Amino acid sequence: MKKIFIADDDSDILEVLKIMLQIKGYEVEATSNANENFISNAAKADLVILDLWMSGIDGRTVCKALRAAEQTKHIPIIFMSANSSLKEIAKEYNVDYIEKPFEMSYLLNKVQRLTTGKVEFPSI
Amino acid sequence: MKTHENKYEELIAQNEDLTSRLEEAMDIINAIRYGEVDAVIINKGEEPELYTLKTADHTYRVFIEKMTDGAVTLNKEGIILYCNSSFANMLGLSLSEVLAKAFEDLVHPKYKTFVNGLIKKAWKNDCKGEIILSGLQKEIPVLLSVNTLEIDGGKSLSIVITDLSFQKEMQEQKKAMEQKDEFISIASHELKTPVTSIKGYLQILRHGFNQDGNAKAEEMLGKAETQVNKLTKLINELLDVKKMETGQLQFAEEPFDFNEMIKEIFEENESLWTKHIIRYHPRDDGKVLGDKNKIGQVVINLIDNACKYSPEKSVINISATSSGNKIKFSVADAGIGISPEQQERVFERFYRVKGLVESTYPGLGLGLYICAEIIKRHGGTIGVTSEEGKGSVFYFELPLL
User: Fold this and answer.
1) Are B272 and B312 in contact (CB under 8 A)?
2) CA distance linking residue A2 with residue A61, whole number of Å
3) Nearest CA of chain A to the CA of B185: how many Å?
């Protein structure tokens, strides 16, 4: 079973993402606080979804930490945000992205693509 | 008799001499008056004495009078000896009200100590400072440039006063604009966050009802989702307009196949356009250089509008034809149409078409404005032809790669 790690400081969005992914049989680890614990545990993840603007630790910082560590640097990352410069930011960090609000089918297709087959990111 | 005659001739000669000297004096006075004389040298004794004339700097006086900055000279006691009319005008006072006044009396009480310090310092070194003057009707932010000046062997202070009101006003306007932009940006973000979870929960529920075979509930949730999508569209329109106004709207520049883009749009949006008969027959292939998503946004907007303003089950004809080095995309509906005078205005910002029955149609009046901006920024043209009651044709042309 594929493991997805999600960090978003909006608990409702976190729940929505969790349910949607669980419907498709993914194992989900969701947090509203992407602390050091989350980052070190992420070594087990097949995919990490990060909100860009989080109170506390910010999505970009988590991304940098994941890319810096040997055991997590290969894991595909998706940035999520309602920020209009999301596309540019994702390009800068060489990660995939999903704009908020999003279509459930779009999310699931993207997640499936990134967790199966060859890991080739970003798919922008 | 002889003496009388001699006396008479003497007087005539004296008179002639006096007249010519008077004429010479008059010439000198006039020359001084008209600023043609810089200095007068008078040979009184062995050493000639040089007198610089105060009116001799006429040109410079005019120059100082004409400049928009205020100019003032002060004596040691800080009393105004001279001021140009710009300075008096700045304060809303007459020249006589300003002359012989203490400079500090024209300064806002809060800045008196500062100004006195500045003046004291200026006797040693030239200096500058921003203060506020108390005018007759308003307070004026100014920049003071204070220098020492030597006039006729005596020292006085010269101050050039630059009015900063306009600059300050512009700064404030800019700040207000930035605050407004930031507000819209934050507001859009804050509006999208709850919309994201609402849309998410609706989709989960719809999926659940679909699994249970509850078609009615699924349909209703689909409708709720459509409304949420409309809300998202409005938020995005606000954001796009804000970006256009602040020059932040950036376009990708990538070549893409126009018909391929239309095909993708239909695949993604067909479910939304089921109430009309939409006919599209792509005829020509053509690649366009630009932002595929943004051009796609224009296409979707034009089709959405055609659906919005034409009766259900009516035909909407969509075509893309190329001629020369251009591709023309058009959407023709059999809807309410637009009056000639409104046709000119539909691409204006905030303009909303006034209907025959309804007073206005829903929307912010931003959609077509955004479309026009996107097409213009791609070097294209956008337009409409229409007949009231019969329908409209909205089209745009873009240069082919």
Assistant:
1) no
2) 24
3) 8
Q: Is the pLDDT of residue B353 over 90?
A: no
- Tell the burial category of B359 from Cβ atoms under 10 Å away from its Cβ (0-12, 13-18, 19+): exposed
User: Tokens representing B382?
Assistant: 């956008």
**Interchain contact B210–A (C-beta under 8 A):** no
For residues B56 and A37, what is the distance between their CA atoms, to the nearest angstrom? Answer: 85
CB neighbours (10 Å) of residue B270? 10
Q: How far is CA B14 from CA B5, B18, B21, B341, in A?
A: 14, 6, 10, 91
Q: Looking at the complex, does the CB of residue B112 fall below 8 Å from at least one CB of chain A? A: no
**Residue B201 sits at the chain A interface (C-beta within 8 Å):** yes
- Cα–Cα distance between B27 and B25 in angstroms, integer? 5
Instruction: Give the pLDDT score at A119.
Output: 47
Q: Among candidates A88, A98, A48, which has minimal Cα distance to A71?
A: A48
**Confidence category of residue A117, pLDDT binned at 50, 70, 90:** low
State whether B200 and A12 contact (CB < 8 Å): yes
